[in-house]
Amino acid sequence: MAASPHTLSSRLLTGWVGGCVWYLERRTIQESPHKFLHLVRNVNKQWITFQHFSFLRRMYVTQLNRSHNQQVKPKPEPVASTFLEKTSSGQAKAEIYEMRPLSPPSLSSSRKPNEKELIELELASEIEESIDVGKETKDEKQWKEMKLQVDDLPGILARLSKIKLTALVVSTTSAGFALAPGPFDFPCFLLTSIGTGLASCAANSINQFFEVPFDSNMNRTKNRPLVRGQISPLLAVSFATCCAVPGVAILTWGVNPLTGALGLFNIFLYTCCYTPLKRISIANTWVGAVVGAIPPVMGWTAATGSLDAGAFLLGGILYSWQFPHFNALSWGLREDYSRGGYCMMSVTHPGLCRRVALRHCLALLALSVAAPVLDITTWTFPVIALPINAYISYLGFRFYVDADRRSSRRLFFCSLGHLPLLLLLMLTCKQRRGGGDPGPPPS
């Protein structure tokens, strides 16, 4: 049986010397595991460090051998690229000497550039072109003063006056003039159309002048002339004044004072009431519908000189038509209107927006029936107008139920064709009043 260190030291040595030997033996036995672990850890760290350096050395040797292999192995000469055709020979040689790596001594110095060098040349040219393009785009993004060209002025003024909307206003005025009772006076009709068109151009120009800071936030209106700075605000206001003054003067003295007063009132209502109200209350939609209902009334008063029941009926048809038309349009532009800060039904009251559109689709059915009752058209009109009125009412119902972008687009595009077709049917079924002499009495 093995003896312990304590008994071994006590047998060999006694006294003070034996005690010292026993203490040293015990301390050595206790600390030996810790020293062994510390030694193992140091060895492991040194081994890891050695492995790391060995890995880096192998990577370096691999990359060096790869570069040597690429330089030594010659490749077939490619077809001359378009870059070399455009570059002069002296410039190409300078770029080759500048960018080519050191060739090994085994290759002759008079050999032609290989495929690698050509690829490097093409890459260098692409980098230079990208740098030039970046400089050009940076210069384009910098602010530059836009110069107004005389050739571009008619198109800019047409967009400033919303020429398509103005054409719609003139067409509804013409329909009101044609539906009025009495003989057709062409000079009066021409003056009415010109005066109404000028008044509409003035109102639209002033509207854009007031809404420049808000139109810049909307994708639908960010390319308008005043927003882009294509014309100055002074020029826009001057153009609006040059349209409003002769327009109202033509309607007042060329047609009759009542039509001129309606034209002036409509300019005021659109610019001073509807435009600021768009950022305050959803009532702007009803005010805008009144603005759109006045032009056919102006056509009627231009032909008759008075406000009759027929004038209010035409105004009511235009008034009701605008709600499905505009509510469906604004439904797809809710993000734009909210970004611009406009208070629209489609943004703040989406349920009311759909209900109002459906109500006025059904109102068009009732107004079509009222036309022969007021002796404006024959009874044929509500019958032949029933399919288009029923169809727009159906689309208004689908818009009310579905409340999605697809149903709103269908209703909007249907309204674009509904109004001219409805007015055309009214002209076709216009009530003919006898205006000739009664003739001789029977004998």
Explain the overall architecture.
- It contains 20 helices and no strands.
- It is mainly α and 443 residues long.
- Among the domains are: 151-280 and 287-307, Orthogonal Bundle (Tetracycline Repressor, domain 2); 308-432, Four Helix Bundle (Hemerythrin (Met), subunit A).
- Residues 1-13, 78-90, 92-112 and 435-443 have low confidence and may be disordered.
- 76% of the residues lie in helices and 0% in strands.
- Converts protoheme IX and farnesyl diphosphate to heme O.
For the secondary structure, the number of strands is 0
Identify the CATH homologous superfamily of the domain at 151-280 and 287-307.
Answer: UbiA prenyltransferase
What share of residues is helical? over 70%
CATH topology group of the domain at 151-280 and 287-307: Tetracycline Repressor, domain 2
Beta-strand percent range: under 5%
What's the main sheet like? none
Low-confidence stretches: 1-13, 78-90, 92-112, 435-443
CATH class of the domain at 151-280 and 287-307: Mainly Alpha
Give the helix tally.
Answer: 20
Secondary-structure element pattern, one letter each: HHHHHHHHHHHHHHHHHHHH
Could you give the distance between the termini?
169 Å
CATH-level-2 architecture of the domain at 151-280 and 287-307: Orthogonal Bundle
Question: What is the overall silhouette?
Answer: elongated
Radius of gyration, Cα only, in angstroms?
45 Å
How would you classify the helix and strand content by structural class?
mainly alpha
Overall pLDDT metric: 79
Pfam family, one: UbiA
Membrane topology: Multi-pass membrane protein
Catalytic activity: heme b + (2E,6E)-farnesyl diphosphate + H2O = Fe(II)-heme o + diphosphate
Main location: mitochondrion
